[in-house]
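REVIEWER CHECKLIST
Item 1: Sequence provided? yes
Item 2: Single chain? yes
Item 3: Sequence as submitted:
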Amino acid sequence: MSLSKRIMVELPALRRFARALAGGQAEGDAQIEALLTSILTAPDEALAAPDLKLFLYRKLTDGFHELGSFRPCRDGSVAEQSVRHVLNRIAPRPRIAFLLKSLEGLCIDEIAEVMQVSDVQARLLIELGSTAIAEQLRTDILIIEDEPLIALDLQDIVEELGHRVTGIARTLEEALKLVADKKPGLILSDIRLADGSSGLDAVNMIIQSLHVPVIFITAFPEQFLKGLKPEPAGLISKPFLSETVRALVSQALFFDRRAGMDESLGAN
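Item 4: Structure as written out by the authors:
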C-alpha cells in the first residue's frame, strides 16, 4: 500500500484528535494540512517509521507544541467557545497527553512514544491534564454508593479535583431525593445498593428528566456485557485506583461539554 493510502486510513482519527485539541474543526484541519504537506513533500521519515500511526500523532503534536495557545474564539456556538476556553487554559503537553489517552485510547507506552518521554513522564502528563481540565469544569457530583468507606474515598477524590458533592445516596430512594433537592452535573454510581435496589434503576429514572453523564463504579462490570442501559460515560471496576477515577471524571465532563460543540459543527 502506498504511503498516501496508509495515511488516508489514519486520517479520520487524526482529524478527530486535531479537532479536539484545537477546539474546532477549522483549526484542527489547518494543522492536518500542514502535517500532510510536510510529510508528502519529504516522505522518507514517514516511510522509515516502524509505526506510521504513532509517527503521525507525534508529528501532529509537534505542531501543537509550537502553537502553544490557540486563538480566542470569536464565533461559533456557545458550546464551542466554552470548550476552546477550557482547552486554552491547559498547558499544551498535559492537554495532548490527556486527549491521547481519553480520546484516542493510546496506552501509556504509545503516549510516551508520541510525546518522546518516559512512561513515568507520560503518566504524569496525563494526570496533570486530567486535573487541569477538572479544575476548568468544576461541577456538582452525586455519589450513589452503599459502602461508606468507598463513598468517602470517592468524595475525597472528586473534592480534591475541585468538585462539590451534593450528597451520598445509599439507596434508589435516597438518590431520587438528592436529585430533587439539587441537580448534579455528574453521577458516580454503584450498581447494587444497600436495600437491594439498583443503581442502574436509579440512574435510568434520573436521566429521564436530566441530561447528566454517569460513571458506574462496581464490582460487577460484567453486567454491562448484557446490554444494560444507560450507556455510561465511564465504567470502573472495584477495587479502583484514585487516578483512574480522576481521569474518568475529567474525561466524562470534557466530552459532555464537547457534545454540544459536536452537534453545532455537524459530522465532519
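Item 5: Key structural point noted by reviewer: The chain has twelve helices and five strands.
Item 6: Recommendation: ____
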